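User: What would this chain look like folded?
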Amino acid sequence: MPTYSGAVRADQAGAWLPEDFGGLLSLEVQSKSIVSQLSTVFGTDKTKVNFPIWNGGVTTAFFSELDEITPSNGDTDEVVIEPKKAAGLHLSSSELFDDADPDIAHQIGQAVANQIAHSFDAAFTANTTSKGYSGLLSKSYTSVDAGGATLTNLDKFVAARFAAEAHGAKLSHWLLDPTVAEALSNLKKLSSGSNEALLQFVEDGITIAGLPVITSTHVDSGTLAWGIDKTQRRFVIRNDTKVERFPSVTNDGQWVRGIMRAAWDTLNPAGLVRIWDATP
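Assistant: Here's the prediction, encoded as structure tokens.
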């Protein structure tokens, strides 16, 4: 459960109750981070979680009614996810806490959540991160060669969807850098003299080859797009998210510290599809 240290004034915001504010941090991070939007979120009170994987190996055949059925053994494996600690620390003046609108607690909570979500997303799109978890670039993903730095059509996205299916995945989202998404949004249909955009905006953004697009500035410059099957990704959050407030010993201030433990991994690396210029 979340913990709390430090006295609360009678007129302090109720959000400083440990259960409420700790829950706020966890929910804010989940709503802001792309890693949680592109994964199945799994909560735990353990230091690590083992996800079993069935790799097949069972064989079947046709038999007559009294034939002896030939046995076979299935191959199994596992993915172990160990949540990593991300933390944020914020110093405010005591005067701010004494005189500000009670909503200051909520605002500081959002600021800490933004910082932690940033850390989780940076690790998610990276290769390896010191003291963090390994991200997309570290996995044995399936490549679709973009064939150049820019695209003039959406053929590579169609190829990525079928490449994922060939490896037992069904893509649910695209992950792109915002500048790439903007460039694709400006593509025009090939009909002569047409100024009609190739992509259409919907309520939640844009779709490419029938799948919604999520953007992040954390996507590396060498990647045109990631194709992701959300059902095969896990974002494990440990149930000890907490926020603590305590006085500064060197000045008249109040520290707010948020701590959240979480990590990401994939149950099917080959089901991740990276569209990039693989042969420059």
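The CA atoms of residues 35 and 120 lie 7 Å apart. If you want, I can go into more detail on any region.
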